[in-house]
Amino acid sequence: MPTPKLLTTAQAAAHLGIDRRTLARYARQGLLTPTPALPTGHHRWELGDIRRRLRELRERGTVA
Q1: Alpha helices, DSSP H only, in 1-64?
Q2: pTM for the predicted model, two decimal places
Q3: What is the CA radius of gyration of the chain?
Q4: Domains of the chain, with CATH numbers?
């Protein structure tokens, strides 16, 4: 299985159609977890993981 491509917060947000600040806020709130957070504090995201997690959160009514 190929290694998933890790995206910056801005790249992941663009793929999801949300603002990068929204994605960063979800991370701060513990709703989403970056994969991994770099020692510099910058996040990297695996698109499939965050899509799956956002779908779960929407089903529960946690996010719009």
Answers
A1: 9-16, 20-28, 47-60
A2: 0.82
A3: 11
A4: 6-59 (1.10.1660.10)
